[in-house]
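User: I've been trying to design a sequence by hand for this structure and keep getting stuck. Would you show me what you'd pick, starting by listing the structure so we're on the same page?

Assistant: Good idea, let's start from the same input. This is the structure you sent:
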């Protein structure tokens, strides 16, 4: 048999003397005086050698440069004299603030490379660029401070900016980032390079980009504030507190001029005021125009350096890390549709797709009465934020929450300790994002409170990105205050529970009369509790069925939203009621089974002997006449039918199961149990399938159940059988109570042949 296998080789496995052949998918040897290129898919000449030809891969020919011309040009094709030495790559080297010139203006190669000093005087204010290829105008802070491109002592050079030592600078920043989940605090290379420069430029010049960059570093540090620390958030808060004179933006007290809006403030109870005091100034419906049935989220996006990127709509899966179809991703923002998405994502894919973090300020778009488009800021609840013991963003107590504004999906930047080009030591991923929309209580027009986005981050220590993965999820929940519905349910439970007590007392009194006892003893109390268990099970059953049908009808049929389904966490009482109903019904069933087992039953055979027979008397040796015996098989048959009738159901289980499956799966009733606003019985395979609601499923099942009445009446047939068999049945279910079936035949005999039985039936007809 032929094999179609090959060894797996990666570019990193090839080493310095071999390259990765993209055609063979294997490592190949480089030629003489060659080594692997930086990309790994070709060979390049070693230092001191120039290229004679290069056709890609290993098709490279190298030639050694003369001793007196030991340098190689930047493109690697020529040898050149380097007056100021060589780099490790064998190329010419120049000093700082100098540019390397290897060719004349018309492209002719020079015999000796030139290192031209950039003129930093007032005539040009120029310095070499980052690549050392050309002279460009130096940064403006150099010119402001030193009137040149030099930032010598006592001036302060930080982050590529120059500041005067005589200026009032913000405190010295701490370039550390704490990853609380894994207990690691590291010095970030990004913070070390940019923190102090951004804070100083924001403080001295109100530089917009620097202020945004400082805010981003605070967000990367999980908005964690400390009065005794000068980390990124400490510097931001220092500038925020000392720039009150600049005023506020859009009449929002927490949004300072020139600064990003990061916090809502730390006043106790402020979170509940933000989330519950104001109503979102528009209405939503389940059936109407697209603007009324969709949440129009829009986000202002920034890069880590503080540059504004663009306005982005959340449609298209901007916040969803799990891949999916466009239709299903956009279903997350259809009003009333509970959306859940979760998956495992590889750390290597995260690092590839999110090499540079993007920061978002989220808003909800709406139209004003004048037709103007407006934005409503969406607050963020960062579950990883650590402020103080007073503010803990966990639990349901809003008074302990500290709301923020800006967030990101992946931070693979702050976790880099040394080289910003290498893999980070730690990557921080938004593993759980939840958008919560709360309906205003007692609204009839679909009014909501401002939405809340909750973000939980996971810190991943990068060891082997290809094998590491993290679970991420994105969800949109719709909720309303269920306290009023719970109160009504409790009232109904109390009223029906009280009626169940009275009904159980009446049952107990009847049982006492039947047993002939007038003393209230332990058996009486136990019997009352058993009766009450069955009646209370009926109460729970009525409440759960009523609740399911109520939510099914009122949620699915509404146009302007007035009710929203309970969340799974709010269904605990409903689940408890169902469990109680089944448990109490099971107890009642056991009691019924015990009562059936303790019933005293007598079968009375009215058949009289027909004639006499001769019978030998044992031991005496004589023959005497005796009455002919009556057959016992009729009594056996009636007793067997009695046993069977005890297990007869009022429904046909097979028919009921098939009917339920038909209406749920074929007709499509099961689609009504989805937690979305649609009342359609059919769903496209391309559309998003919302999670099931336990309450709606309970209501749907009882809509689809059909109780079947049998054409025949089993009990009447049993009475007829007793009459035909000439047998009466006497049952004593209690000491002083029982039942009697009078089955004595009017014909006198039932143990007869077919002809006489046919005559008797005709006479009876």
């Amino acid at each position: 048999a032929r094999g179609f296998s090959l060894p797996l080789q990666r570019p990193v496995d090839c080493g310095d003397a071999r390259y990765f052949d993209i055609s063979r998918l294997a490592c190949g040897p480089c030629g003489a005086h060659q080594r692997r290129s930086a990309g790994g898919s070709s060979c390049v000449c070693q230092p001191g050698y120039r290229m004679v030809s290069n056709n890609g891969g290993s098709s490279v020919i190298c030639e050694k440069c003369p001793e007196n011309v030991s340098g190689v040009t930047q493109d690697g094709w020529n040898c050149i004299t380097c007056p100021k030495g060589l780099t490790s790559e064998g190329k010419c080297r120049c000093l700082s603030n100098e540019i390397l010139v290897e060719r004349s203006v018309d492209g002719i190669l020079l015999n000796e490379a030139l290192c031209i000093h950039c003129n930093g005087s007032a005539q040009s204010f120029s310095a070499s660029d980052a690549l050392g290829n050309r002279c460009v105008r130096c940064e403006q802070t150099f010119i402001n401070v030193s009137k040149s491109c030099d930032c010598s002592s006592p001036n302060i050079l930080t982050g590529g900016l120059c500041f005067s030592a005589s200026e009032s600078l913000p405190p010295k920043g701490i370039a550390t980032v704490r990853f609380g989940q894994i207990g690691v605090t590291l010095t970030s290379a990004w913070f070390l390079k940019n923190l102090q420069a951004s804070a100083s430029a924001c403080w001295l010049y109100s530089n917009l980009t620097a202020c945004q960059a400082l805010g981003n570093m605070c967000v990367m540090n999980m908005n964690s504030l400390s009065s005794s620390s000068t980390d990124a958030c400490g510097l931001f808060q220092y500038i925020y507190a000392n720039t009150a004179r600049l005023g506020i933006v859009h009449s929002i007290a927490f949004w300072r001029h020139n600064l990003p809006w990061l916090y809502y403030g730390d006043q106790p109870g402020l979170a509940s005021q933000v989330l519950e005091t104001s109503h979102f100034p528009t209405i939503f419906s389940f059936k109407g125009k697209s603007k009324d049935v969709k949440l129009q989220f829009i986000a202002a996006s920034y890069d880590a350096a503080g540059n504004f990127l663009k306005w982005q709509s959340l449609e298209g899966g901007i916040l969803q890390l799990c891949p999916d179809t466009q239709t299903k991703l956009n279903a997350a923002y259809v009003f009333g549709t509970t959306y859940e998405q979760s998956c495992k994502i590889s750390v290597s894919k995260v690092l590839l797709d999110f090499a540079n973090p993007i920061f978002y300020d989220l808003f909800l778009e709406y139209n004003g009465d004048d037709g103007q488009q407006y934005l409503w800021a969406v607050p963020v609840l960062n579950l990883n934020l650590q402020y103080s013991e007073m503010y803990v963003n966990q639990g349901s107590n809003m008074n302990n929450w500290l709301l923020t504004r800006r967030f990101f999906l992946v931070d693979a930047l702050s976790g880099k300790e040394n080289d910003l080009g290498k893999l980070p030591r730690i990557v921080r991923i938004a593993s759980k994002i939840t958008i919560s929309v709360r309906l205003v209580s007692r609204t009839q027009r679909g009014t909501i409170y401002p939405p809340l986005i909750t973000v939980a981050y996971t810190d991943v220590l990068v060891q082997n990105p290809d094998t590491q993965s993290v679970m991420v999820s994105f969800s949109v929940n719709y909720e309303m205050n269920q306290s009023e519905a719970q109160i009504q349910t409790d009232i109904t439970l109390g009223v029906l529970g009280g009626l169940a007590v009275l009904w159980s007392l009446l049952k107990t009194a009847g049982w006492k009369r039947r047993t002939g006892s007038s003393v209230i003893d332990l058996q009486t109390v136990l019997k009352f509790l058993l009766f009450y268990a069955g009646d209370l099970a009926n109460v729970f059953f009525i409440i759960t069925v009523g609740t399911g049908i109520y939510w099914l009808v009122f949620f699915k049929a509404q146009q302007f939203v007035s009710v929203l389904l309970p969340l799974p966490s709010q269904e605990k009482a409903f689940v408890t009621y169902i469990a109680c109903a089944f448990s109490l019904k099971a107890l009642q069933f056991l009691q019924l089974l015990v009562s059936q087992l303790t019933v005293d039953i007598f079968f009375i055979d009215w058949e009289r002997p027909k004639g006499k027979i001769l019978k030998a008397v044992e031991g005496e040796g004589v023959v005497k006449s005796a009455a002919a015996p009556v057959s016992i098989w009729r009594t056996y048959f009636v007793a067997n039918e009695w046993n069977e009738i005890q297990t007869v159901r009022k429904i046909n289980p097979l028919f009921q199961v098939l009917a339920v499956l038909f209406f749920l799966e074929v007709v499509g009733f099961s689609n009504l149990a989805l937690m979305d606003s649609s009342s359609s019985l059919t769903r496209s395979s391309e559309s998003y399938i919302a999670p099931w609601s336990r309450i709606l499923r309970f209501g749907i099942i009882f809509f689809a159940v059909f109780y079947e009445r049998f054409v025949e009446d089993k009990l009447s047939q049993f009475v007829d059988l007793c009459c035909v068999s000439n047998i009466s049945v006497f049952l004593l279910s209690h000491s002083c109570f029982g039942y009697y079936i009078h089955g004595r035949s009017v014909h006198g005999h039932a143990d007869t042949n077919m002809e006489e039985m046919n005559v008797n039936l005709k006479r009876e007809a």
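That's my pick for every position. To get oriented when you compare it with your attempt: Residues 645 and 714 are 7 Å apart (CA to CA). Confidence is low (pLDDT under 50) at residues 706-711.
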